[in-house]
C-alpha cells in the first residue's frame, strides 16, 4: 500500500489543487446549506432535517442535494 503524501511531500501544483478543491467544496456546501434554509419544505425531496446533516458528508452530500434533493 502506498504511503500517504504529507503536505511537505507535495509539489506546488499539487498543493494548489488541494487548496482549490477545498475552497470549492466549502463554497458548494455553503451554497447548498443556504438554498436548503431558504427553500420551502414543499420544494425539497425528503425531510429538510435529514438533508442538513447529509450536507456534511463530503463530497457526496452536497452533490446529492443538488442532483436529487431539490424540486423544480
Description:
The protein has 72 residues and is mostly helical. It has one domain (12-69). It has 3 helices and no strands. The protein has helices at residues 12-38, 48-54, 60-69. It is elongated. The termini are far apart.
Helix content: 55-70%
Find the count of extended strands (DSSP E, 2+ residues): 0
Q: Name the quaternary structure.
A: single chain
Structural class: mainly alpha
How far is the first residue's CA from the last residue's CA?
Answer: 45 Å
Query: What is the succession of H and E elements?
Result: HHH
Q: How many helices in DSSP terms?
A: 3
Give the low-confidence spans.
none
Label the overall shape: elongated
- The number of distinct structural domains comes to 1
Radius of gyration: 16 Å
Mean pLDDT: 94
Give the topology, please.
Blueprint: H1 12-38, H2 48-54, H3 60-69
Membrane topology: Multi-pass membrane protein
Keywords: Cell membrane, Membrane, Transmembrane, Transmembrane helix
InterPro entries: CLS_N
Keywords for this entry:
72 residues; 3 helices; 61% helix; 0% strand; Cardiolipin synthase N-terminal domain-containing protein
Summarize the structure.
This protein is mainly alpha-helical. 61% of the residues lie in helices and 0% in strands.
